[in-house]
Amino acid sequence: MANEYIGASVFYFNAEGIEEKFVKSISAFSDKNNTTTQIRGSGKSGKVIRQNTPGQAESDNVTITLNYNGDNSIYDWYLKCSRDGEARQWEDNRKAVSVVGYAQDRSTEVIRINFTNCFPVSYTAPEFDATNNDLVTEAIEIAIEGFQIERSTNALSN
């Protein structure tokens, strides 16, 4: 049985204490295992033996774009972690971040991506433009240390 396809626009974002934010988009997340090609040695007739071995795992940063409504919780989180001239408190302000995708009924959780030990690395303040009809947004880029993808056991199936 195939599961219901979920819409990319039916999701929720949570960052430990920062909730009920209206999120416009979350960048695609990727993770990879880097490989190292090593020469194991050289044998008779100069034959070279190579072997690929796993290297360090690497996770890309995630960018979250939010509709701005006057709540400064995202900006405050960034300031606690990144302000120049003051003691940076990024170690004490790491957060668990979750992105939850829902079925079309908007109540059945289908997928949850949990990011661990996140901290902000950049912040983009709201931009104003008198010729633009879009809502004002802010964006935060976060570094992550780990992730886990969970598929809900309550997911709908056809």
Characterization of the model:
The chain has 158 residues and is mostly beta strands. 6% of the residues lie in helices and 48% in strands. It is built from 1 helix and 9 strands; from the N terminus they run E-E-E-E-E-H-E-E-E-E. It has one helix at 73-82; strands spanning 11-15, 23-26, 31-42, 48-59, 62-67, 95-102, 109-124, 137-143, 146-151.
Find the structural class using helix and strand composition.
mainly beta
How many helices? The count is 1
Q: How far is it from the N-terminal to the C-terminal residue, by CA?
A: 6 Å
Assign an overall shape: extended
Uncertain parts: none
Task: Report Rg.
Answer: 21 Å
Task: Report the mean per-residue pLDDT as an integer.
Answer: 86
Helix content: under 10%
Beta fraction? over 45%
Helix and strand string, N-terminal first?
A: EEEEEHEEEE
- The number of distinct β-strands equals 9
- Sheet having the most strands: 7 strands, antiparallel
List the defining traits of the structure above:
158 residues, 9 strands, 6% helix, seven-stranded antiparallel sheet, 1 helix, mainly beta
Short summary of the structure?
The protein has one helix and nine strands, in the order βββββαββββ.
Task: Indicate the topology.
Blueprint: E1 11-15, E2 23-26, E3 31-42, E4 48-59, E5 62-67, H1 73-82, E6 95-102, E7 109-124, E8 137-143, E9 146-151
Antiparallel strand pairs: 1-6, 2-5, 3-4, 5-8, 6-7, 7-8, 7-9
